[in-house]
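Can anyone check this?
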Amino acid sequence: MTDPIEATARSIAERTDELVALTVDLVRFPTINPPGEAYAPCAEYIGRRMQASGFEVSYMRGHDTPGDTDAYPRTNVIARLEGKRLGPTVHFNSHIDVVEVGHDWSVDPFEATVRDGKVFGRGTCDMKGGLAASIVAVESYIRANPDFPGAIEVSGTVDEESGGIGGVAYLASKGLFSKPRVDHVIIPEPLNKDRVCLGHRGVWWAEIETRGEIAHGSMPFAGDCAVRHMGAVIEAFERDLFPALAAKRTKMPVVPDGAKQSTMNINSIHGGMSDDYTGLPSANVPDSCKLVIDRRFLIEEQLEEVKAEVIDILEGLKAGRPKFDYSITDVLEVLPLMTDKDGPVAQAVSDGIRHVFGREPDYVISPGTYDQKHIARIGHLHDCVAYGPGILDLAHRPDEFVGIDDMVESATVMAHAMHHLLTGRS
């Protein structure tokens, strides 16, 4: 009797060229977020592919979510195939959006160059290589095992790079990531092929605005410079906050090692004239300056404490600095998350890693959040992990790539985990 896992593994290996071609096709959709380019064409391409394999396909637009317009619709695709008999549902979820290209590329970011056993291009690692691997894993599995029980779902969702509100959060609010529809979720994020990612650190994004008084730039004493006030904020952060964050450590298995501490990134800063002016700037004292912070925190920290660290600094400046005034607005809040490593999906993926690589997996936590947060907090579905091909450190960088062998091996692990979850057999 043919072993279903071995038959699937052979099928995946035989389809390596097809896996590469699929990855290339996906990368050539320049799904840059923001603003949300080419979402619909990419989703429709995935939908046609899954329909050809017998899946029922639906498209759901995240209406009225951030960034959703007729020019840039937040189009998600969900494909589902029912098995021959009742059983659990295994869902593979990948985001289709990618970050901006940036500088210093040696190849065309959207040509998807294939060389030296790798596919280069924006989104190859994060995470179109993982999406392609999951599709080929599913297609190979159902061909080798047409009588599988339960159901299999594959989704391509949007906006993960900007919080996932128009993607997984929207779908979860519609019940598409909850029981009884879905039981187990695997997200093929690039956390390295021999790791099971159980969750992520918390995040608090906020916008701080310092206010001043406009005046002629030749007489700054007649006004009050909001940019200088923001400079005092940054100076206080450097002196008081950043050293305190660096001293905090977590017991969570966060990778890389630098992310085992609390961190804060100054995401952007802007004061004075808008940057779209032409000619010479006007001679004004800026009366507003805005700064966006990206604070990542640990499971040992409370969100209220995280906010208080920043607000205490701002209140101290207000008390001690003449004319200092500010406002602070929450942009995004996500609590730290860690799935039980002994749960069904974590153990199924672990079993696949042992089978394919002959070694024990590493259990890790992502330094940044990903769409597992919405599946847990909105869908109330906690049997979810991230597992996929790609090296985490390459995400968002120039000359991003994914290894072809890594995609093949990860697809085999995914197929193994899928069989384990659907049938209860490893």
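Reply from J.R.: I decoded it. Residues 3 and 144 are 9 Å apart (CA to CA).
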